[in-house]
Specification:
mainly alpha, flat, membrane, 4 helices, single chain
Amino acid sequence: MNLSIALAALWGLAANVIALLPSRDYHWRAAYVLIAVGIPILGYVTWQNGPWVGLIVLVAGMSVLRWPVIYFGRWVKRRARRSPGE
């Protein structure tokens, strides 16, 4: 196992430990930090192991952080539905 995969596994472990802890803001601050740390790790995994492994790690990360992905998808739909004159 190379360093990039080990970092991705460590990120996943940290995300799961954070999910176990109580939070007043429903873990949104932790999600922002995990996203900010996860993007460079994803790039490193993709650079070191290729796009297919990077895609697998991306899907794994999206399954852990599914609510930010869902809210982003809803935001994109709302923006796409607006008429060009608005």
